[in-house]
Amino acid sequence: MRLILPLCAFCLAGLAACDEADQAQSQNIEDDWVHNPAPNTPAPEPTPPAEDVYTGPAEVGKYVLKFIEDAGRKGLDVLPDMQDPKLDIRIASLDSWGSSTIGLCETGSNRRRVTFDPDFWNAVSETQKELLAHHELGHCVLYRGHRTALLETGKYASIMYPIIMGTSTYQNNYDYYQEELFTWNALEMADKLARKENVHICDHEDM
Predict the structure, then answer these.
(1) Closest by alpha carbon to 135, among 165, 112, 174, 175?
(2) Pairing relationship of beta strands 19-20 and 14-15 according to DSSP bridges
(3) pLDDT of 89-109, one tens digit each?
(4) For the whole model, what pTM was predicted?
(5) Residue 207: how many CB atoms within 10 A of its CB?
């Protein structure tokens, strides 16, 4: 098994990397999967139209809205922060960041931008797109950094782990990962302001 080294650099902005857990997932398109909330799950507040929430391709709207709705189910209203500055999403080559880069989050006083590399985005399942979108919006909206802790089972403790987890891990532990993503944020408030000037990149292992 080859050791995957994260790409890290620190200057005025933080730089972090994450990798794709299973190389095969970028080669084999999995069945689409949509998680339905458990019965009696409180409904979040009505979500505004996607075009009012972000600027960018229409195809990413459902992932942005699901992030907002998932946050709402955990009692977290992320809409105000997403508007100041307004979330900007792009599907564009990230080769200048390295050939394995699949996602990028840039935040600053006048920028809140997420970029997905088309080579990855156009080749994976709905679930993998949701995972990457939740991860990058975790950086760009919740101002979360990477969390490298593992559970006792050896599974990643967070969607914010610097390696994109496998689909089955996410599906089988969906409620836990949603809870962790949107509630762990409160425990990191002391670091939140420091993360408002950041760049976070996500990589996958070279094929």
Answers:
(1) 165
(2) unpaired
(3) 999 999 999 888 899 999 987
(4) 0.73
(5) 8
